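Schema walkthrough. Field components (list of strings):
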Amino acid sequence: MKKFILALILALVAFQFVPDLVAADAPKAPSIEDRIADLEAMVNNGARQTNAATAIATSPGPGHNGFMMICSALVLFMTLPGLALFYGGLVRRKNVLSVLAQCMGIAGLVTILWWLCGYSLVFSGEGNSILGNLKWMFLKGVDSTPNTDYAAWVSHNVFSMYQLMFAIITPSLIIGAVAERMKFSAVLLFVTLWMFVVYFPLAHMVWGINGLMNGVWNAGASIKAIDFAGGTVVHMSSGWSALVLCIILGKRLGFPKEPMPPHSMVLCMVGTGMLWVGWYGFNAGSAVAADGVASNAFMTTTIATAVASFVWALAEYLFRGKPSVLGFCSGAVAGLVVVTPATGFITANGSVLIGIAAGLIPFFAVYKLKGWLGYDDALDTFGVHAVGGTLGAFLTGVLATADANANLKLNLAEVVGKTLWIEQLKAIGLTLTLAVGGTVVIAYIVKAVVGLRPSEEVETVGLDLAEHGEEGYYGHSR
Amino acid sequence: MKKVEAIIKPFKLEEVKDALGEVGIEGMTVTEVKGFGRQKGHTEIYRGSEYTVDFLPKIKLELVLADSRVDAAISAIIKAAKTGKIGDGKVFVSPVSEAIRIRTEEKGESAV
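Field assembly_structure (string):
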């Protein structure tokens, strides 16, 4: 037996040399030119060109481009139906469709504004550091060739659609604070004005290549702040605007005496799961490439969210006696919100700290602060998004490190790990001022033009029947 | 003839039905109802909002019986529905002046 094994081993060793023996007859190795032509053919998605007429540089890279199309769809999935169900489950059943209608209405409206001039105002590098110009109006010239200001290997049109999805979810978040009591026409008019006054300038300042607060990429930024996926642009802007709007709008009829429990915690949890999954497109996708920064963001998003969800429910367990599904859901969303500005800039340990803070501070805001101050933020947009977004923007300044993202060495080597948190405070101040000031003005304009609230009778019957002529659950409006 | 109405805990319905069957009761009407007595309701908490739910789900049984069978029915219900805790429910007995079987138009005790 031993001899047999030995013979087998010898035979196997001998086989290792066989390819060498026949190598002389193998076809010639491909030339460098052929290999380059193959690479170009792969990137440009065509057959091998012998004359190499098409350079790679004008094409999107297949991997990065594919990743960004999927991420764009994931971010849209956060709103439709993620956020719509998360919010829809939390309202009373007579208003569930109004929330869905508002989310879908905003998706259509904002897409039209984006095509018209929104994208250009946010991302054109011309214009000034506060707002871009109209160079890409009607998305003219926004084609499949990458725009190297933002992504070397992603088609410009894909980039513009990816950013559109952020522009859709941001005003949709505001819906949560004013749910069950705002006229549909008022929502549409408010969002239209709000996009021009608050979102477009803010997004340009933070992400525009020449933006005032774009610390990572703009060497001349006056505020050297960082915001990876939208802590200031998306969550602070929507959250603070939501607080102002819900105060101007007033409380729901019967609040806080009449019980207004969620009509379906099941829908709410389903929506939360969709938000969490979609958020990978939001956070990892904000690297605008399937690269190492995206990988790190994927990891930190997961950790912060899971920790926050767990900590929030644990806090309920300790302080209220029962861990609730709404607690797990709220904690998960709070974790996602707080980690958003930091996700591409922090390490795994940083994301655990963010998760703990996200499970406790917004928890305090929705359980205590709201009761003390007495405003009717129906679905806690302020408590989760404004408090969480502001917390995240600040913690990003404390926890960001070039170990997690080498881009922080480009223009920010002097401030990262030292005074970055002061720059973050400046960005927080500017965002807060713009969101609060802009919303006060817009809310009173909308009130004067179409009015903010439906009649008491409409509000009592429910917005579904009165404003949309249908019921979420036929024959069960209540 | 008497009508026996019993308000009981929903999870006791099967036991009560079987107990009534054992003493020869052949029909009953059951309704899902809400209400409260000394048990009061319970509290639900959704984030910062606490709601007291006063009306708890209960089951109402209605039986119309010949006078001679009422006592057996009542003791069967009490035996099956009792947990000894607050919220077990109540039994009400009231007189019934007439009963008619629609199919045969029989009247009185032979109709129930």
